[in-house]
Amino acid sequence: MSQQTSILADIPFSLLELAPMRQGSTVGETLHNSLQYAKEADRLGFNRFWFAEHHNMPGIASAATSVLIGYIAGNTQRIRVGAGGIMLPNHAPLVVAEQFGTLESLYPGRIDLGLGRAPGSDQVTSRALNRDTSRAEQFPEEVSELQTLLGPYNGRHAVRAIPGEGTNVPIWLLGSSLFSAQLAAQRGLPYVFAGHFAPRFLYDAIEIYRRDFKPSQVLDKPYVMLGLPLVAADTDEEAQFLGTTSKQRVLALIRGHELWLKPPVETMDGLWSAQEETYVDNFLGLSVIGGPATIKHRLEMIVKELGVNEFIFTNDLYDLDKRKKALQILMEIKQ
Q1: Among candidate residues 277, 273, 228, 223, the one with its CA nearest the CA of residue 250
Q2: Closest Cα to residue 309, out of 183, 190, 170?
Q3: In whole angstroms, what is the distance from residue 143 CA to residue 237 CA?
Q4: How far apart are CA 137 and CA 175, in angstroms?
Q5: Which residues are in the Luciferase-like domain (predicted)?
Q6: Is 86 within the bounds of a domain?
Q7: Which residue range is the domain that position 211 belongs to?
Q8: Number of domain units in the chain
Q9: Could you say which DSSP state residue 47 is in?
């Protein structure tokens, strides 16, 4: 009797990359490691490789998102490369359209544009990026502007994105609250929920998106991608050990410290208070941690419960070889 095919077989797996830096490493070394990681994902058959935009965060080297997309796309063969996402209040829509239109022209059919309305930084850095603090309120209008700039020229608008016009780069809306879910539904756009750092509104956001979805030229039915923190290893015990790297990083985040990747530790006891432990656990509440069987079971349960169409994983392990190993494990459990 043949073994039953996993429900994960038809679910695309993708990766969200923050270009995590180990203390003492250089930006160049970090980005080279991100490329090696992306090449392995490309070889194994992952669907997308997206960079998240963050600023003024020592330990995260993904600030110049569109530059990194070109670097990865130019050195891989098949995998889609994109932004998860561009924080639109930081950028003029015309500049985004020109950058992603250029990328799409160089790597046709492989570029994605995920959009968020958060600054991807603290308030001081946000002001350094953009003096207009009301830009986030203009997010729906600026999404429309981007769609127009990337669409076919209608013979009317005076400002045109060259390159960009007519490329129709796929636009995704990202969110950790209900706002982007509502907007994605209204516009008939694919939606990504940021479960890798903000699990609180997961169920409500997906329910609202599906309930209010209006078909568009882009999509005839809802499409949900879910971001999840991943720690995959050969055994559950090793995964729990490796996962202490992410826990230390979130702990540094809530303390306002620099976000360097730290080696895993045998125990977090003594490193955090009970209150901090609760906060970190809530932050990483959707983490998928374990050996192959545990990972497979957890992802299958999520698919059955939420009906997600695609997963996008953060995989911030300390060791590059362990990161690559996690990718192999993920693809094996799809069988």
Answers
A1: 277
A2: 190
A3: 44
A4: 14
A5: 23-309
A6: yes
A7: 7-242+284-332
A8: 1
A9: S
